[in-house]
Design a protein that fits this description.
about 190 residues; mainly alpha
Length: about 190
Amino acid sequence: MATLGWADREGSGRPARRGVRWLCAVLLLLPLFSPGCRTRPPAESPVRGVRVGDVLEVGDPARRASVRLVAQGLDADRAGELRRARGSYERAIQVDPTNPYAYLALARHNLDGGSPGDALNLVDQAAALFDAEGLRSPEVDVHLIGLRGWDLESRGRPGEANLYVERAAALDPLLWQDGYLSAQELR
């Protein structure tokens, strides 16, 4: 007769080891599946940084035209046609001076092209426009943070830059792990 894991094995009166082993394994593994015993919850869930392609059809006709120009600029950037890319971003700003994506893309373009110049001013302008339109979100912030870090790096301030880039990488590890935002990644 078997009771609570004990069985008479050929009359020897020894415990049924398989049942005891199973019970021990369950008891040892149980804390791993309990929510209160996990090693460490993530501080924040990673976000997916905003992409220009996500907003191509959003807004009034001027905004949509401006965003299409930004997308064309990013495509030109990807193809290595830097002058054409810059021209697209500048036209996007002319069509809709309140388009934050144009300033974001132009800042990325300046940093990537090795002429950061006013990249930080462009990031600040983009941030202000995202705020003004109520479009500020973690998906936007990850790029603003990352571009600020990239700008600091280009200015020879790696200590400060690392704080920003690491923060961006924590928010969107897929895009910012390398501390770089390509035209394709923003597209």
